[in-house]
Amino acid sequence: MDPGATADDPSPRAPSTTLRKRPAVCIDTSRRGGDGASSSRDPARGPELAGARRASEEEGSMATSSPAAEERADAAAAKARARRDLEEAGGEPMSPAGRLFRETHFNCYIVAVIGLGAPVDVEAARAGLEATLVRHPRFSSVQVKDDGKRHGKPRWVRTTVDLDDHIIFPNLDPAATSADPDQAVEDYLSSLSTAPMDHSRPLWELHILDFPTSEAASAVVLRMHHSLGDGISLLSLFIACTRSAADPERLPELPPAAPRRRAGPPPLSAGLAAMVMWVWSYAVLAWHTLVDVVCFVATAWFLRDPRTPFVAASEGVEFRRKRFVHRTLSLDDVKFVKNAMKCTVNDVFIGVTNAGLSRYYFRKTSDTNKERKKSQKNVRVRSALLVNIRKTPGLRALAEMMDSSKNNAAKWGNLIGYIILPFHIAMHDDPLEYIRQGKKTAERKKTSLEAVFTYWSGNLIVKLFGMKAAAALCYGMFTNTTMSFSSMVGPAEKVEFYGHPIVYIAPSVYGHPHALTVHYQSYVNSVKLVLAVDDAQFPDSHQLLDDFAESLRLIRQAASTT
Fold this sequence. Notes:
Elements: H1 46-56, H2 69-88, E1 92-93, H3 96-100, E2 109-116, H4 122-131, E3 141-145, E4 154-158, E5 167-168, H5 174-179, H6 181-192, E6 204-209, E7 218-225, H7 231-240, E8 242-244, H8 272-301, E9 322-330, H9 331-341, H10 345-364, H11 370-375, E10 379-388, H12 398-401, E11 416-425, H13 432-446, H14 450-465, H15 467-480, E12 483-488, E13 495-497, E14 500-510, E15 516-523, E16 526-534, H16 541-559
Parallel strand pairs: 5-6, 10-12, 12-15
Antiparallel strand pairs: 1-4, 2-7, 2-14, 3-4, 6-7, 8-13, 9-16, 10-11, 13-14, 15-16
Helix pairs in contact: 1-2, 8-15, 9-10, 9-16, 10-13, 10-16, 14-15
């Protein structure tokens, strides 16, 4: 699905790779007994230790031991006891954000295509799933609503997981997979966007596409309901299911995350000017937050983006068929531009999106007058951007995220707030102007607490007025904006998924009321640009990919001459 990545050979075959087999781990996934503990396969230490092992190994049963193993086992035993008490009380309540993703107009699913460097070893994959995903509380629970209560809140209730219900082998036409395997994968992904998922089972599936494409020897598709967790949670879990390709006995190293804390007051020795600047920074923060909150509320009620080719053509786009297309970009090129422009990687992504949308817009509107293109400087489209509001940003170790203590700053869940991020459509002679605009936009949003406000105000609205009111406000915000935008940092080293070398990771989302969703996913030295588009509205989705790729090429070229 990446024709632009192989200019010399439009349909190269993936090189043959030897699959490194990993030892299967026998895990008891049977239903718990009345005390909430697993049927113990360790009679010497009893059900409690079995529950403790289940909790402590949620990051992957193949994680290496450490000197603090006994201490972690004791802590995990306490978590196991708390979990038993929770289950006896009827399960864990769903968070407001998780409940939002159940609403009719926000029934959102995450779908991720994972390209592999070897054919799929189904038995190795099953053993890996039993040792990791099946043991995770969210991936072994069903959503149950309180019976007998008119406004009962849904809960997570643990259940037995039958992998045969979750590992899918699609019956695809062999002629189609042989003639154009990339198109076969793309069409199959598109069909999933309108395929229902059985809510009587844990809400995840692994689809096996065991045939070579232009980029990989095989592929798997992981589809899961967004109520299971946000992008940070799910990607952290996915990384816990992988191992370093260089050393299959260890977990991959997590990419570093910059601290998010604001600087405290300067010391008195710094002088009056430093104190004034510190106070001024908080005044700016308060003002920008107020402006953004007013804009957010206005957008939820009435403030609508102008009509462009990117806006949903009609209501009900969240129910229509989506198409997922992706293109591999060079992370080295992105970092070259970042260093040349003294900005961040995300600033470059925003700038490239500005440029790609502009190229597509002016071609679709058939405006060939260069002077008129330059004069159209007020064509602005806005995106909904989900922001991780955890105090500790970035990917975290899964064991850390599963800590249920109140002071855990990186715990599992849908801990996300919304911000409205503008993109500017314009024709610039200097391609670097798109990056400057992107940097300006990003720096402005960094001096605002809009995401924190939308998260906590959303929770408050749910408590005071109910989920329907909160969903109505979110629906207004989505339908009055143009698109969704996101980016995620992935492993910085090559990893294996249950013994299968990973070639690429291409995630996206569907079920929300936007006709266009743009996502950037980094992995080692590449970036996957993934577009989720309304299948009927964007028949030329690959041309839109070309516009993004060409924009990055021109920006990289311009940056090399600065």
